[in-house]
Specification:
Structural class: mainly alpha
Strand order of the largest sheet: 1-2-9
Shape: elongated
Strand content: under 5%
Helix content: 55-70%
Largest sheet: 3 strands, antiparallel
Order of helices and strands: HEEHHHHHHEHHHHHHEEEEEHHHHHHHEH
Number of strands: 9
Length: about 575
């Protein structure tokens, strides 16, 4: 290639900037056609690996992003599930964004639901009757907000859930639970601040330096496009910190079981016993509903796995759990407001706690439940509000995936030789497979829910067996795609930095141009600076705008949540 570039009398296969033949080597000549490249360079000849170039580009464009992935939410049971959590995020920004937006919207919904309950609990008519009940309501709201990273269930076995809601004396249990959840909530750490700052500054300084000294350099532009595929990490990591997660596996189950709570017993005189509560739990106490399998693999799938990355599969069961708890508090507040006692006798202002004392059956009825009532975690009739949240989260997931992958495609596509080649094609594949993985796993979660509804109701048959197979197969397919896509993103970046794409097929964009492909040889970065400024600037500006919009959405939604 150097021979062609330095030969002043070379005329074979010359082309202009549109890939059209030119007769002589003058200012109109941009490069040579792809057949000439193959003739002089061969089909598989690569440049010598340059460690200084690799070290510089890897350090500036990839290493800060890889370091920042350590701040993604993991908190799964073991290393394997945490690795899959990493792949779910890196392999599909759409999926991790979908889980994040659902978590934020669910928190916003439960805040609005409990805001009304808190206003009623703080009303003089209720507060005078039972002063501490509003604190119990606030603690329940906090639990529901922080509980999305685990598969929480409610149980009325032995009247436990109704006892937690109604029985006097459980204020301390609720308040301690809230305090422990706040203590184990992940916050801003020094490592987070430094890794975020390092990633942002490395990207800003590298892009600024490229504009100042290398504007128009095709290799530099392609390096920028490669680094820009990771920029979604900034708003996503910040979003998970703002919405909040528990910072270690099993934190919620520990917080729920560390203190004993009071439970009404069935002896007719309103006595209680104090023991480890079993009304709210994050791990199954019994086998209802049975966990179906298909070829030895769980049909329930990711809904049962603890960790924020799997929140996408819990949207329906979390809503069911939150609705059960909300309705119990709603019925209780309504009874207090109307001076109805738990035991059925007249309300006595001098005996506030005794007014809410009753046996197991009375306590359950007071909050709209019955003792030993099954509380199905899976439901068939889903609220329209849930579908609205799923739609919003889906749109935002697509926005994040293609709003950050798109600029990388744009810069790589418009960098001469213009066309869909190895670099732009690799980003297109990354975006397509990231979107496909998100859609497949979302559908798989819905199918799993449909199976569990049938399992819960004992409705089995040939349709049930087909759904079991579909739930497992779609989940396995989606996870395979997301793992391969995560590996592909890292490898495609490394290929760019070590020069794997520096060959005739890739440089000539033969993927899209075919025999019309050509390789640029005779233009310097100064010659291309004007066109590159708009191409680079447009792509970088689009990336920044997408990240700013996402960050502001996450911030404002979480700010409303904390007001």
């Amino acid at each position: 290639m150097a021979l062609i570039r330095n030969a002043s009398n070379f005329t074979e296969g010359l082309v202009n900037g549109l890939g059209q033949h030119v007769a002589k080597l003058d200012e109109t000549a941009w490069g040579v056609n792809i057949s000439t490249c193959y003739k002089y360079c061969g089909s598989i000849r690569f440049p010598v690996f340059s460690f200084p170039r690799f070290a510089g580009t890897f350090t500036n464009f990839l290493l800060p992003w890889l370091a920042l992935t350590a701040q993604l939410p993991y908190e799964a049971r073991d290393a394997y599930k945490n690795i899959i959590s990493f792949c779910l995020a890196v392999g599909s920004p759409a999926l991790i964004t979908y889980s994040l937006v659902l978590t934020i919207l669910n928190r916003y919904w439960i805040r609005n639901q409990f805001q009304e309950l808190l206003e009623r609990a703080r009303d003089r008519g209720v507060n005078n009757e039972y002063r501490a009940f509003n604190e119990r309501v606030a603690a329940a709201q906090y639990l529901l907000q922080e509980a999305q990273q685990v598969p929480l269930r409610a149980s009325q076995d032995q009247g436990w859930l109704s006892s937690l809601i109604v029985v006097p004396g459980n204020e301390e249990w609720w308040q301690n639970l809230k305090n422990r959840l706040a203590h184990s909530r992940r916050g801003v750490t020094v490592s987070l601040a430094f890794q975020l700052l390092a990633a942002i500054l490395a990207w800003i300084f590298t892009v600024s330096a490229a504009f100042k000294s290398s504007l128009g350099d095709g290799t530099q532009g392609l390096d920028i496009s490669s680094g820009s595929t990771w920029i979604w990490l900034i708003p996503v990591v910040c979003g998970w910190i703002m919405v909040g997660t528990q910072y270690f596996y099993g934190a919620l189950q520990h917080d729920l079981s560390v203190d004993a709570a009071y439970r009404a017993i069935d002896n007719g005189n309103g006595n209680t016993v104090q023991e480890t509560q079993q009304g709210i739990f994050s791990r199954p106490i019994n086998a209802w509903p049975r966990r179906p399998q298909w070829l030895g693999m769980s049909v329930q799938g990711d809904e049962a796995i603890e960790g924020p990355a799997y929140n996408y599969a819990r949207v329906l069961t979390w809503w069911r759990f939150a609705t059960i708890v909300r309705d119990g508090f709603d019925a209780t507040i309504n009874n207090i407001a109307h001076d109805r006692t738990c035991h059925g006798e007249g309300w006595d202002l001098s005996l506030r706690e005794e007014n809410l004392t009753g046996d197991m059956e009375q306590t359950a009825a007071y909050c709209g439940l019955t003792p030993d009532q099954p509380l199905p975690p899976y439901i068939e009739n889903i609220s329209a509000d849930i579908w609205k949240r799923i739609l919003i989260a889906s749109l935002f997931a697509i926005f994040m995936q293609w709003g950050t992958t798109g600029p990388a495609i744009l810069i790589a596509y418009l960098t001469p030789t213009q066309g869909l080649g190895c670099r732009s094609g690799s980003y297109v594949l990354y975006g397509i497979f990231g979107t496909l993985a998100w859609a497949t796993l979302m559908i798989s979660a819905m199918i799993s829910h449909a199976v569990m509804v049938r399992e819960q109701g004992g409705n089995r048959g040939w349709r049930y067996n087909i759904l079991c197979a579909l739930a497992v197969l779609t989940r396995m397919f989606g996870k395979t795609v997301v793992v391969v896509n995560a590996i592909w993103l890292i490898l495609s970046s490394l290929f760019q930095y070590i020069g794997m794409f520096e060959n005739c097929w890739c440089q000539g964009c033969e993927l899209s141009l075919g025999a019309k492909g050509w390789i640029m040889l005779f233009k310097s970065s100064a010659d291309l600076a004007d066109s590159a400024s708009s191409q680079w600037g447009g792509g970088i500006a689009m990336s920044i705008i997408v990240c700013v919009i996402a960050f502001m959405f996450f911030y404002l939604a979480c700010k409303e949540d904390s007001d």
